[in-house]
Amino acid sequence: MTEPIEEVQDSVQRVARGEAFLDVRDLKVHFPTDDGVVKSVDGISFKLERGKTLGIVGESGSGKSVTSLSIMGLHPPGVARISGEIFLDGQDLVQASREEVRLLRGKRMAMIFQDPLSAMHPFYTVGHQIIEAYRVHNKVSKQVAKKHAIEMLDRVGIPQPDRRVDSYPHQFSGGMRQRAMIAMALSCDPDLLIADEPTTALDVTVQAQILDLIRDLQREFNSAVIIITHDLGVVAELADDIQVMYAGRAAEYGTAEEIFDEPQHPYTWGLLGSMPRIDRERSERLIPIKGTPPSLINVPTGCAFNPRCNYAHLNGGASETDRPELLDTGNGHMVACHLSPQNRQQAWETDIKPKL
Amino acid sequence: MTTTDAESTPAVPKIGEEILSVTSLVKHFPIRKGVLQRQVGAVQAVDGLTFNVTRGETLSLVGESGCGKTTTGRLLTRLLEPTSGEIVFEGRDISHLREGQMRPLRRDVQMIFQDPYGSLNPRHTVGKIVGAPFKLQHVKTEHGVKKAVQELLELVGLSPEHYNRYPHEFSGGQRQRIGIARTLALRPKLIVADEPVSALDVSIQAQVVNLLEDLQEEFDLTYVMIAHDLSVVRHVSDRVAVMYLGKIVELADRVDLYEKPMHPYTVALLSAVPVPDTKRKAKQERIRLQGDVPSPINPPPACRFHTRCWKAQDICKAVEPPLVELAPGHQTACHFPENQGTETPAAAVDQAKS
């Protein structure tokens, strides 16, 4: 880890240049297949500072995981066509060589995967895997690295870490495996932590433990965190800012308060309406979004959401022909929708807000 | 949807009567070792459940993984044979019926599976999948099986033209609809739905939940819903049974359970649900349970929750709390229940001893 003073100077310089710690600009990830080009991510931009948490929300196939894998440089070469820019602390990751990105992984950025059983190697002990990652970035002896691994396991709340360090992944329960993976991801104090559905495979009581853990560790290490999930409850717990994705593009971007209290995009309304709420009066019926998510090979022209949108007819055909840009509605709350501010306000006040 | 406002038709017996009753249901899976395959232990997946289901209601079984809710579902549909205990469906004991004796009953008791990818044969067309129940049960339909299948597809919101398509051509939500159409083919009375929406996206989940509710109203269905998502359970259920390590720890009306949970485990579960409301972030008081669910091979003695319970005392390690009715329609198995009305914990203990 760099000295705090250096770090401050670094970020001062960055801010002076108008760059954020993580700065993603117009990222596109396309996969050519026999059936056509799959546009998994089709032009998204966001910024993230240290100590902040960004939540990326969307349904399956909206491009949230593909985004995180391209930040980590984990798309196999030759498979994905990546364009745009990803700056991590001023360094462009899209242009960097694989070896350069490999050296950043673990130290500067790390990832927690959804399924710890397939993310960990079944043949090596948990300790071995943490030690290996630690020794890539730190010139230390095996004994020192092992001590560090035990410390990390203790930190994430694994009981008897000195014994558990020699266990194999299959000997851990689901929650413990997820903790072990978090320990591995945090072993080199990464500046950027990406958590891709970190709690989806877990039970609700264990989920609560893991969310608390991520929050505590972020406070301690002052890392930037991206949390990717389809569970709006989870992002509401953790995120400062939220990006709602649909069909590979951002539909809405704002602070957590803005997204939950004054959502602007019909898709966000749909997501909030589809969810039964445990904290509210029970509604007689849920309000689903009609239809199904589009195929990414054949994304609808215009606004990708228009076939499922109840308000597309209000825009004089623009929804079917023009792709809406992500525009600022004031104070950084951005939305990609053709609805005029008056129509949107009216729809929100009369149709949506009373039912949520 | 309560049991009282649902309409009853003359052909169907009265709403509100008992359709299924389960007494001391036990399922242990033996663990065998060595050359002689001697039994060295047992996974106590389900260990003494007693509950009943009334016609037209939705009873949900909730709990964390390994609590035995899926095993219970498979016992109710008799995909598994219970180790002991009794399952009575419409007055008939079905706990140990043989395959052949069970077959006529399969018309009345059907199951919806969790995984819409694994539960449909990829080599069969939708028509064949949904039509299979007619063939297996030798049911003659008025205008032929094809017509009946197409009507079913329409009923669940698919197009009749989908008859000749294969499962891989459909999305997850559509596949779940195919599964539901198959379940409904023979107009069952009781449907056991094992996590029917947990594999689906949020927007699709709402569509399927609404569909299940509409079908219940239309055909007077009785659901036993197995789920882990407490928000969904609250939305669909009339009554909820909370399970922990093979036992029911609390069984109550939806409203009672969510507003006045009595068992500490239920309280902890409810407090752990992430709420999509940023204002609650700061003030939300969360009960953090320590550790994981213990193994059902060697469950803790007496109250099985005592290893993780913050209220546990010596009695919890020695005497197993029975499932008793502490408020009207509200059963709890705990020595020191929360949110209690008139009764004191001591009274509950006395009742437990007698």
From TrEMBL, chain A:
Keywords: ATP-binding, Cell membrane, Membrane, Nucleotide-binding, Transport. It is found in: Cell membrane. It is a peripheral membrane protein. GO terms for biological process: peptide transport. It comes from the Bacteria. Residues 24-272 form the ABC transporter domain. The keyword Cell inner membrane does not apply. Gene3D superfamilies: P-loop containing nucleotide triphosphate hydrolases. GO terms for molecular function: ATP binding; ATP hydrolysis activity. GO terms for cellular component: plasma membrane. NCBIfam families: oligo_HPY (TIGR01727). Belongs to the ABC transporter superfamily. This is Peptide/nickel transport system ATP-binding protein. It comes from Kribbella rubisoli.
UniProtKB/TrEMBL annotation, chain B:
Keywords: ATP-binding, Nucleotide-binding, Transport. InterPro entries: AAA+_ATPase, ABC_transp_ATP-bind, ABC_transporter-like_ATP-bd, ABC_transporter-like_CS, Oligopep_ABC_C, P-loop_NTPase. GO terms for molecular function: ATP binding; ATP hydrolysis activity. Gene3D superfamilies: P-loop containing nucleotide triphosphate hydrolases. Residues 31-270 form the ABC transporter domain. PROSITE patterns: ABC_TRANSPORTER_1, ABC_TRANSPORTER_2. One of its GO terms (biological process) is peptide transport. Belongs to the ABC transporter superfamily. This is Peptide/nickel transport system ATP-binding protein/oligopeptide transport system ATP-binding protein. It comes from Kribbella rubisoli.
